[in-house]
Specification:
There is one protein chain. By secondary structure, this protein is an alpha/beta fold. It has one domain: Spore Coat Polysaccharide Biosynthesis Protein SpsA, Chain A (Alpha-Beta Complex). Helix content is 28%, strand content 26%. Helix 1 packs across helix 4.
Length: 195
C-alpha cells in the first residue's frame, strides 16, 4: 500500500447556512460553486476517495457536484455539527482499506495544497496519530484521524465537534502549521471573495 492510499477525505458541507441567507455551498466563486472549489482544492493534495457530507439543500447541492465524488446525506444535520462528522466517518468506517480520515470544512477557502500535503505527509509518517493543521496558532483543518478514533468520533452529538475531543487530553496529536494558506471561512455573503 502506498502512503496515503488508505486515506479518505471527508468534506463536511451539511450546514443550513443561516447567516449566509441561502445555500452557501452553491455560492458563486468566479464561476464555480464554493463547495466545488473546495472539492477541486482537495483533489490537488489528496487524489484518492473524497466523501462529501450533505444535509440542508442536499438535492440542489448534489446536482452541482462532479462525478466521481461520493456523497452521503446527513438527515440529522439540524441537530448540530457533530451529526455531519458522524455521518462522514460512518460512511468510510466500513471500508476495510480505510485507515485514516482527513476532515475538511466545505465552507473554507484558501487552503494551500503544499500546506495540506504537509499535514498528510505527517500522517504518513505517524499513521496512528491524529494530525491537526493549525492556522495562526489555532486548530484548523485538515485534521487526519486514524481508524482508532473512528468510534470516538461516531459518539459525538450536538454541536460538540472533534475539537473538544482533541482538547480533552488525548495524547499523540501532531500539530502542523499552515504556513502558506490564507484561510477564509465563508459564513456570510461578505466573506465571498470578489472575482
Amino acid at each position: 500500500m502506498t502512503p496515503s492510499s488508505d486515506l479518505v477525505v471527508v468534506i463536511l458541507a451539511a450546514g443550513g447556512s443561516k447567516r449566509f441567507g441561502s445555500a452557501k455551498q452553491l455560492a458563486d466563486i468566479s464561476g464555480e460553486t464554493l463547495l466545488n472549489r473546495v472539492i477541486d482544492g482537495v483533489g490537488t493534495w489528496a487524489p484518492g476517495r473524497i466523501v462529501v457530507v450533505l444535509g440542508a439543500e442536499a438535492d440542489s447541492i448534489r446536482q452541482s457536484i462532479p462525478d466521481g465524488i461520493d456523497m452521503v446525506v446527513c438527515s440529522e444535520w439540524k441537530s448540530g455539527m457533530a451529526a455531519s462528522l458522524v455521518a462522514g466517518v460512518a460512511a468510510v468506517a466500513g471500508d476495510p482499506i480505510v485507515e485514516r480520515c482527513a476532515v475538511v470544512m466545505g465552507d473554507t477557502l484558501g487552503l494551500d495544497s503544499e500546506d495540506a500535503s504537509a499535514v498528510i505527509a505527517a500522517s504518513d509518517v505517524d499513521p496512528v496519530a491524529v494530525v491537526q493543521a493549525t492556522f495562526r496558532g489555532s486548530p484548523s483543518h485538515p485534521t487526519v484521524f486514524p481508524r482508532s478514533w473512528f468510534g470516538r468520533l461516531m459518539e459525538l452529538s450536538g454541536d460538540q465537534g472533534a475539537r473538544e475531543l482533541l482538547r480533552s487530553g488525548y495524547e499523540n496529536v501532531v500539530k502542523v502549521p499552515l504556513v502558506k494558506s490564507d484561510l477564509i471561512d465563508v459564513d456570510t455573503q461578505t466573506d465571498v471573495p470578489s472575482p
